[in-house]
C-alpha cells in the first residue's frame, strides 16, 4: 500500500511542480517508512507491530435503527427532536446496552482472529464507528483485512497541530453579541468540544464566574443534557471542571503504544502542557473581557467568539509529539457520545492519509460523517500547507474547513537616529526611557577577551562574552541571524544578556530580508526593536560606523551614535480588509491519493488566523517566546478554526433546530468577498522576495469568503443537507464503490445515481465540465416570513451559466423550499481554473452568495 502511495505521489510531483515543497516532505516520510517496513518484514516479532484502526460490520450507536431483538434503536436519540431527552435513564440504558453488544462483537472477532494469542486492544469505538484500535504486524493486518466482518483497516498515522510559528493577534469581533442579548448571553448553554492539547483550568478565560470580575449572576449553571465526565489527576484536581469547562478527558493509548508518551512531559490528564488547546478553546468560548497581560503590559481585553458557551475538553494532542489518529478518533467518538453541539478540530494529518482509494473514506472523515449525522457541526483547520495548490488536509463536504486570514492589526514601531533618520521595526517592547537619546554599541565591538567558539557574539546569547562597562546604559546592537530560526538562539536570552550587562535595551539588525520576515513580534520586557529589512539595518550600521571612533587597532574608543526607540506595544489597525495568509492551505480539494480534483469546494471559509492573542499555558515549552506566559499571540489555521466554532455556537444558540449543514451554509453564504471599497479580497502568494505578492483571492484560497459574523446570524435562506445527501455524494464519488458506502455508513446508494457536484452545498465545484451540466440546488427559507429573491451571477471564464428560475418567491411552512437549476456549458476547451459567483438578493434585505469553480472544460 505504501509503495502504491509513493508512486502516486511521485507522479504528482512531475505534474504539479508547485507542490514540490509539500511532496518532498511526503516522500521523505514515505521512504523512511518503507525502508523500515522492509527490514522488519524479514523478522516478524511483536516489536514490528503497529497500531491499526479497524472498522467492522454493525451500525455504530448513532446509526443503529433497532433491527436487533432486545436492543432498542439508538440513532433517533441524536436527532433534534430527541436531544433534550438524551439524559433520561431509558435513553442512557438503551445506549449502554447497544454499546455493550458492540464491544462483545468486537471482542469475539478479535478472539477468533488471534485464537489463543494475546493482543492489545487500545480503544473500542462505538458511537461514530463500530470498531477498535489494535496492535498488529503487517502480516496480521493483511489477514485481518480479509476476515469476514471486517470492513476496513487503516494504519495509525500522525496528526499535528495546525499552528505556524509566526505570532498573531486576535481579530476581536465587535458588536456581534447584541442579537444574543450581549456578551452575558452569547452562546449560552452551547457546548463546544475541543479536540486538542488539553486546557489550563486555572486560566481566567475559563473562570467559572464568566468574567466581569466574578459577579454572582454570571455563574454557569449545570447542563443536564451533557453526559461527559471530568478526569481528576494530581495536576488536574477536582474542581477543574467548574461549569465553564464542563468535561475534560485525555486519550493517549496510541501515543503511549507509539512509545512517544512520557507522563511527566505530556501529562496523563486533560492538563494543557502545550498552550495550543487553551488558545483554541479561549478563542471559541473564552470568557468576555479578560485582560491580556504579558510581563505587566496590558494588550487589550480578550473574549471568545461565544463567551457564554461551555467547553468540553478532549485531549488527544500532546506537546512535542503531536497526535495519533486512533486517539483523535476516540476523542471525537467520546465527544459525540457526551452530547457536544460543535466539534472544533485544529488539527490535520501530516499528509493525506493513504489507506483508501478516496480521501472521503479515511477513518477520521468517516467518523466525522457520523458526528454530523448526530447533529454535531464539525469545524476543522484547512492546514498550513499554503500557498501551494492542493495542500488541503481537510477534505469532506460534511466538514467546514477553515482558511486563515491576516487581519489589519499590527504593532509597528520606529527607531529615531540623532540625525533625524527614522527607521521602521517591530517588537512588542517598551520605548527607551525618557525623552533622551542612548548610545549604541555593536555586539562585536563590546566583546571582551577571546571569543568562545560556541557562541557567535552577534547573537548576544552569552553575557560573559561582553565587557559590561561598554554595554552599560547603551543599546546593544545584535544580529537576528538564522540561529534564531533554526538554531538555539532566542530573544529571551538576548534580554538576559542585556540585563546582565546593565544595558538600556537592544537593537536587532538583519543580514537578510528572509530572516527578518521570519520574525514574530513577541513581547519583550525591555526596550528593543528588530529592523526586519536589510537596507534599514545597513543604514543603522552605517550611522553607527560614522559616529563611532576607533583607535589604531580598530578598538572603539568613543560611542557617538545615539538613538531612541519608540513604543512597540501599541496595536494599530489599518482598516485594511482581511487577506488570505500565505501559509493557509489552498484548494482544489483532492478526491483521492492520485491527487485528482474533487467536485467539492475546499477550503470553505476564512477567519482570522494570523497573530491571534488568546490564552496560553504557562507550562508550555514548545514556543520559546511565550515560556511561562498566560497569553500568546500565534498564527495558523488552528487559530482560525475556533473563530468559526464560536460563531457556530452563537448561531445554534439562536436556531437550535438548524442542521449542521444549515449552520455551515449561514456562515458561508454570508461571508465577505469584497472589502469596504468593493474591491476583491486579496490572498498572499509567493513573490520570490520577502513581502508576499497579493492577488485577488479565489474560492480555492478562502472558500466562500471572510467570516462575517453579523450577516451569518441572519442569512434568510440556507442550503441544507442531511445524512442521506452525503451518502448520495459518496456513492457518486470517483473511486468509491456502493458496497464500501454501505459497509462504512450503513447507507444504501440510490438507484438513480446523482453526481458528486449535486450535493446541496452552498457552492458549485466542477473538476471536469464536459459539455453541459445541470446542477440542482435547493434553498430553504429560514426567515419567519415570505420573501422574493432575485438571482444575479457572473460566469466563470469559458463557461456560460443559465439559471432557472432567476426570480422566485419563497414562503414559510410547506412553502419554504425552492429548487433552482444551474446549467453550466463549456464554451471553450481550457484547463485553467475559473471562478464565478451567484448572488441571491431578497426583497427584505437578505443577501447570500455561492461561489462557482470550474477546473477543466471540455466541449
Ligand atoms: C529477530 O529479531 C530479534 C530481536 O531483534 C533477534 O534476536 C532475532 O535473532 C531476529 N530473528 C531473525 C530470524 O532475524
Ligand atoms: C436497519 O438497519 C439494518 C442494518 O443496517 C437494515 O438491514 C435494515 O433494513 C434497517 N431497517 C430499517 C427499518 O431501516
Ligand atoms: C520522562 O521525562 C522525565 C522528565 O523530563 C525524565 O526525567 C524521564 O527520564 C523520562 N522518562 C522516560 C521513560 O523517558
Ligand atoms: C477591559 O475590561 C475591563 C473589565 O474587565 C474594563 O474595565 C476595561 O475598560 C476594559 N478595557 C478595554 C480597553 O476594553
Ligand atoms: C474530463 O472528462 C472527459 C470526458 O469524460 C475525459 O475525456 C477527460 O479525460 C476528463 N479530463 C480530466 C482532466 O479528468
Ligand atoms: C413578492 O412579490 C409579489 C408579487 O410581485 C408581491 O405581491 C409581494 O408583496 C412580494 N413579497 C415580498 C415579501 O416582497
UniProtKB/TrEMBL annotation:
Membrane-crossing segments per the record: 7-32
Record-linked PROSITE patterns: SUBTILASE, SUBTILASE_ASP, SUBTILASE_SER
Major place of residence: secreted
InterPro entries: Peptidase_S8/S53_dom (IPR000209), Peptidase_S8/S53_dom_sf (IPR036852), Peptidase_S8_Asp-AS (IPR023827), Peptidase_S8_Ser-AS (IPR023828), Peptidase_S8_subtilisin-rel (IPR015500), Peptidases_S8_3 (IPR034197), S8pro/Inhibitor_I9 (IPR010259), S8pro/Inhibitor_I9_sf (IPR037045)
CDD domains: PA_subtilisin_like, Peptidases_S8_3
UniProt-annotated location(s): Secreted
Active-site annotation: 196 (charge relay system), 276 (charge relay system), 638 (charge relay system)
Domain of life of the native organism: Eukaryota
SUPFAM superfamilies recorded: Subtilisin-like
Keyword Membrane: yes
Domain Peptidase S8/S53: 187-676
Inhibitor I9 domain mapped to chain residues: 90-160
Gene3D superfamilies according to UniProt: 2.60.40.2310, 3.50.30.30, Peptidase S8 propeptide/proteinase inhibitor I9, Peptidase S8/S53 domain
The entry's keywords: Glycoprotein, Hydrolase, Membrane, Protease, Serine protease, Transmembrane, Transmembrane helix
Keyword Signal belongs to the record: no
Pfam families according to UniProt: fn3_6, Inhibitor_I9, Peptidase_S8
Boundaries of every Subtilisin-like protease fibronectin type-III domain copy: 758-854
Similarity field: Belongs to the peptidase S8 family.
Protein name (Swiss-Prot/TrEMBL): Subtilisin-like protease
Amino acid at each position: 500500500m505504501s509503495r502504491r502511495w509513493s508512486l502516486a505521489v511521485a507522479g504528482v510531483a512531475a505534474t504539479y511542480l508547485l507542490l514540490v515543497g509539500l511532496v518532498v516532505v511526503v516522500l521523505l516520510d514515505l521512504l523512511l517508512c518503507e525502508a523500515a517496513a522492509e527490514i522488519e518484514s524479514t523478522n516478524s516479532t511483536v516489536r514490528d507491530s503497529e497500531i491499526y484502526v479497524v472498522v467492522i460490520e454493525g451500525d455504530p450507536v448513532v446509526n443503529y435503527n433497532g433491527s436487533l431483538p432486545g436492543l432498542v434503536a439508538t440513532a433517533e436519540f441524536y436527532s433534534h427532536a430527541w436531544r433534550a431527552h438524551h439524559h433520561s435513564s431509558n435513553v442512557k440504558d438503551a445506549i449502554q446496552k447497544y454499546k455493550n453488544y458492540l464491544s462483545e462483537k468486537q471482542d469475539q472477532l478479535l478472539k477468533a482472529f488471534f485464537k489463543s494469542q494475546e493482543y492489545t486492544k487500545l480503544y473500542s469505538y462505538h458511537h461514530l464507528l463500530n470498531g477498535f484500535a489494535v496492535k498488529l504486524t503487517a502480516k496480521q493486518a493483511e489477514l485481518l483485512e480479509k476476515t469476514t466482518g471486517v470492513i476496513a483497516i487503516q494504519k495509525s498515522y500522525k496528526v499535528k497541530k495546525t499552528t505556524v510559528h509566526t505570532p498573531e493577534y486576535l481579530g476581536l469581533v465587535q458588536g456581534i453579541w447584541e442579537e444574543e442579548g450581549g456578551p452575558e448571553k452569547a452562546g449560552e448553554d452551547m457546548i463546544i468540544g475541543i479536540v486538542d492539547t488539553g486546557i489550563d483550568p486555572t486560566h481566567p478565560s475559563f473562570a467559572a464566574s464568566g468574567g466581569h470580575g466574578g459577579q454572582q449572576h454570571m455563574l454557569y449553571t449545570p447542563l443536564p443534557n451533557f453526559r461527559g465526565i471530568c478526569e481528576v489527576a494530581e495536576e488536574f484536581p477536582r474542581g477543574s471542571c467548574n461549569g465553564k469547562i464542563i468535561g475534560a478527558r485525555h486519550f493517549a493509548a496510541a501515543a503511549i503504544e507509539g512509545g512517544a508518551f512520557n507522563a511527566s512531559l505530556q501529562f496523563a490528564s486533560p492538563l494543557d502542557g502545550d498552550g495550543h488547546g487553551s488558545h483554541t478553546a479561549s478563542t471559541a468560548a473564552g470568557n468576555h473581557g479578560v485582560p491580556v497581560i504579558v510581563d505587566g503590559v496590558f494588550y487589550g481585553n480578550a473574549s471568545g467568539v461565544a463567551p457564554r458557551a461551555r467547553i468540553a475538553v478532549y485531549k488527544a494532542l500532546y506537546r512535542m509529539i503531536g497526535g495519533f489518529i486512533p486517539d483523535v478518533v476516540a476523542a471525537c467518538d467520546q465527544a459525540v457520545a457526551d452530547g457536544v453541539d460543535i466539534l472544533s478540530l485544529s488539527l490535520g494529518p501530516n499528509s493525506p492519509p493513504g489507506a483508501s482509494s478516496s480521501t472521503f473514506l479515511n477513518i477520521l472523515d468517516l467518523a466525522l460523517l457520523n458526528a454530523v449525522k448526530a447533529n454535531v457541526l464539525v469545524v476543522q483547520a484547512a492546514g498550513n500547507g499554503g500557498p501551494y495548490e492542493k495542500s488541503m488536509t481537510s477534505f469532506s463536504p460534511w466538514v467546514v474547513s477553515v482558511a486563515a486570514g491576516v487581519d489589519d492589526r499590527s504593532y509597528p514601531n520606529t527607531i529615531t537616529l540623532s540625525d533625524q533618520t527614522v527607521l521602521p521595526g517591530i517588537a512588542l517592547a517598551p520605548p527607551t526611557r525618557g525623552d533622551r537619546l542612548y548610545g549604541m554599541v555593536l555586539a562585536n565591538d563590546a566583546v571582551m577577551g577571546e571569543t568562545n567558539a560556541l557562541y557567535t557574539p552577534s547573537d548576544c546569547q552569552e553575557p560573559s562574552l561582553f565587557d559590561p562597562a561598554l554595554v552599560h546604559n547603551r543599546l546593544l546592537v545584535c544580529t537576528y541571524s538564522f540561529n534564531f530560526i533554526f538554531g538555539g538562539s532566542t530573544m529571551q536570552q538576548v534580554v538576559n544578556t542585556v540585563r546582565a550587562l546593565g544595558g538600556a535595551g537592544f537593537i536587532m539588525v538583519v543580514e537578510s530580508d528572509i530572516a527578518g520576515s521570519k520574525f514574530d513580534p513577541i513581547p519583550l520586557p525591555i526596550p528593543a526593536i528588530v529592523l526586519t529589512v536589510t537596507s534599514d539595518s545597513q543604514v543603522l550600521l552605517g550611522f553607527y560606523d560614522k559616529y563611532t571612533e576607533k583607535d589604531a587597532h580598530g578598538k572603539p574608543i568613543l560611542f557617538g551614535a545615539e538613538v531612541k526607540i519608540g513604543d512597540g506595544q501599541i496595536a494599530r489597525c489599518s482598516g485594511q480588509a482581511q487577506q488570505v495568509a500565505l501559509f493557509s492551505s489552498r484548494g482544489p480539494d483532492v478526491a483521492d491519493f492520485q491527487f485528482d480534483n474533487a467536485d467539492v469546494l475546499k477550503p470553505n471559509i476564512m477567519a482570522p488566523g494570523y497573530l491571534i492573542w488568546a490564552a496560553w499555558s504557562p507550562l508550555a515549552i514548545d514556543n520559546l517566546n511565550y515560556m511561562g506566559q498566560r497569553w500568546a499571540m500565534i498564527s495558523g489555521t488552528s487559530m482560525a478554526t475556533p473563530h468559526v466554532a464560536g460563531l457556530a455556537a452563537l448561531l445554534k444558540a439562536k436556531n437550535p433546530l438548524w442542521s449542521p449543514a444549515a449552520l455551515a451554509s449561514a456562515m458561508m453564504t454570508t461571508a465577505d468577498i469584497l472589502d469596504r471599497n468593493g474591491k476583491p479580497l486579496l490572498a498572499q502568494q509567493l513573490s520570490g522576495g520577502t513581502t508576499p505578492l497579493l492577488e485577488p483571492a479565489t474560492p480555492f484560497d478562502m472558500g466562500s469568503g471572510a467570516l462575517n459574523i453579523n450577516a451569518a446570524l441572519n442569512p434568510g435562506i440556507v442550503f441544507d443537507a442531511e445524512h442521506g445527501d452525503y451518502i448520495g455524494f459518496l456513492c457518486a464519488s470517483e473511486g468509491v464503490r456502493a458496497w464500501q458506502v454501505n459497509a462504512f455508513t450503513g447507507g444504501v446508494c440510490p438507484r438513480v445515481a446523482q453526481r458528486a457536484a449535486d450535493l446541496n452545498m452552498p457552492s458549485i465545484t466542477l473538476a471536469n465540465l464536459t459539455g453541459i451540466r445541470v446542477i440542482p440546488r435547493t434553498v430553504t427559507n429560514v426567515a419567519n416570513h415570505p420573501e422574493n429573491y432575485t438571482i444575479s451571477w457572473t460566469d466563470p471564464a469559458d463557461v456560460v451559466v443559465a439559471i432557472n428560475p432567476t426570480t422566485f418567491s419563497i414562503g414559510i411552512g410547506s412553502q419554504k423550499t425552492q429548487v433552482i437549476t444551474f446549467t453550466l456549458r463549456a464554451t471553450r476547451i481550457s484547463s485553467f481554473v475559473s471562478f464565478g459567483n451567484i448572488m441571491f438578493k431578497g426583497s427584505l434585505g437578505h443577501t447570500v452568495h455561492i461561489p462557482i469553480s470550474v477546473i477543466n472544460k471540455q466541449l
